[in-house]
Design a protein that fits this description.
390 residues, two-stranded antiparallel sheet, two-stranded antiparallel ribbon, transmembrane helix, membrane, transmembrane
């Protein structure tokens, strides 16, 4: 039922989107890794969440300073553009740093603290010295919830139990903040994926409109089936990585902070591999992709002008008229733009469609491709019923 040229055209187009979206992602992730934009992103988001007073104190803490990227041996240009802030902070580190800083504000508390003063007393007194009302209200709420939680588990609750409950509450808030920031980061990165996708679309001439028409053409069934086969193999492989950010992921923290150069090398290798896979796939299926298709232009010399011109063996030659960017003269090998003049603007619409497709990301196209492949193969088999059920 679904083994039709129209359905195969959709699969072929999704396969191309998956291929080029991986290349687009590499173009976005590589500079982000080098410039440590994640660290700057976390720094700016925490400023809005904590307020200037708590934010400055948090990044001035020795425990956070130890996570900063080394800058003493960097050139002024690198120090200017590469963020030094840590991209990942554990929930425990955040909670302990904030609680210790608020407690330290109680040194000038009036009235005087009880003698001896417990850590929870110092924290409660330090709340009065917070200048940001929203963050102060948040910490007061977490403090009161901690007291209530400790009281429900112990009667009476000890200061140590109250302190443990407070730390867990602060850790929980930071965990939720990290989850929200992951969504913000993905959303904000879509514009970079769009512009990188538009760049790939222009440089590789990935025109969605032209490609759709070419793949759907019955005379190009061989290219269409080759892409379907390529998509089937891709759907059975490992899902590609997308734009991810988890502020509290300790494994990512080790990779990002302690082995940052290894991460950059990995991103560079991934980008190079994606580029090689993309370039290798194009000639195999004979698609109208890339302005660099006309690579054989120096083999024909115009006898009148003495200049080398496009050869009749160029890839665009003998392709359908709608798939060509230039007209080729098989007799002389000379080329000329398609007419009329305004028709040269047609590719822009196809490039924009491709850029919007790249903005959705490689994981999206991988999942979509897998669903289409399953439908083409008459769907996924339902799970067998348990005969032992009564």
């Amino acid at each position: 039922m679904f083994d039709s040229p129209l359905f195969d055209t959709a699969i072929a187009l999704i396969t191309l989107y998956l291929l080029f979206s991986q290349l687009t992602l590499s173009l976005v992730e590589l500079p982000a890794g080098f410039l440590n934009t994640r660290g700057k992103y976390l720094h700016d988001r925490l400023l809005k969440a904590l307020g200037s007073q708590a934010h400055a104190a948090f990044y001035a803490a020795a425990s956070v300073q130890s996570l900063m990227l080394p800058r003493d041996q960097k050139s002024p240009l690198v120090r200017r553009f590469v963020s030094e802030y840590p991209a990942y902070i554990s929930e425990t580190l955040f909670a302990q740093t904030i609680i210790a800083w608020v407690s330290s504000l109680a040194k000038n508390a009036v009235p005087a603290l009880p003698n001896p003063a417990t850590p929870i007393d110092q924290f409660k007194a330090g709340l009065a010295f917070l200048t940001d009302p929203s963050f102060k209200e948040l910490l007061e709420t977490l403090y009161l919830n901690a007291i209530a939680t400790a009281a429900s588990t112990a009667n009476p609750a000890t200061p140590e139990e109250q302190g443990v409950a407070l730390q867990k509450n602060v850790e929980g808030w930071f965990h939720d903040f990290g989850e929200r920031m992951t969504g913000w980061y993905k959303r904000d990165n879509r514009k970079y994926l769009f512009w990188a996708g538009f760049l790939v679309a222009v440089l590789a001439d990935v025109d969605t409109v032209r490609l759709s028409r070419f793949i759907a053409d019955s005379s190009n069934a061989k290219a269409r089936l080759a892409l379907v086969e390529m998509g089937t193999k891709a759907s059975q492989g490992e899902a590609p990585a997308g734009v991810t950010y988890n502020v509290t992921n300790l494994e990512e923290a080790k990779l990002y902070e302690q082995q940052r150069q290894i991460r950059l090398d990995t991103l560079l290798a991934r980008g190079s591999r994606n580029l090689q896979n993309t370039l290798a796939a194009v000639p195999q299926v004979g698609l109208p992709l890339g302005f660099l298709r006309w690579t054989d232009h120096s083999t024909v010399r115009n006898s009148k002008t003495g200049k080398y011109e496009w050869a009749p063996s160029a890839d665009d030659y003998q392709m359908p008229g709608y798939a060509q960017r230039r007209k080729l003269d098989p007799a002389t090998g000379s080329s000329s733009p398609l007419s009329p003049q305004w028709s040269r603007l047609w590719p822009i619409g196809g490039w924009l469609l491709t850029a919007f497709a790249m903005m959705l990301g490689a994981p999206f196209w991988f999942e979509t491709l897998a669903k289409f492949i399953n439908i083409r193969n008459v769907g996924v088999k339902p799970a067998s019923a348990n005969r032992d059920e009564t």
